[in-house]
Design a protein that fits this description.
94 residues, mainly alpha, 6 helices
């Protein structure tokens, strides 16, 4: 799988969005989005811009993994940290 789609998947997870919701936001059919992903094909520039805007990031980040000023790049790490913080807070209260 292209790293582009891995970054899209991680961004969707971070934002709590589904691929179907992404397709709706970029005004593309879900089947087309699935085709891009399954065939490891990049969308055209216009659609890449729409995807990046929906995911609150940049096309540069989705393509290269660099310059992710607008969001945290690793959703799983963020979720683990949030869970750890919640656990620590819960332990303090008990």
């Amino acid at each position: 799988m292209l790293k582009f789609w891995i970054r899209v998947r991680d961004s969707l997870e971070y934002l709590g969005l589904s691929q179907k919701e992404l397709a709706e936001q970029i005004q593309e059919s879900y089947n087309t989005l699935q085709s891009w992903i399954s065939k490891d094909r990049l969308p055209n520039a216009e659609q890449a811009v729409k995807i990046a805007a929906t995911l609150q990031t940049s096309v540069e980040f989705l393509v290269t993994g660099k310059n992710a000023r607008n969001r945290v790049a690793h959703a799983k790490t963020v979720k683990l940290l949030e869970a750890a913080i919640k656990t620590l807070k819960d332990e303090r209260i008990s």
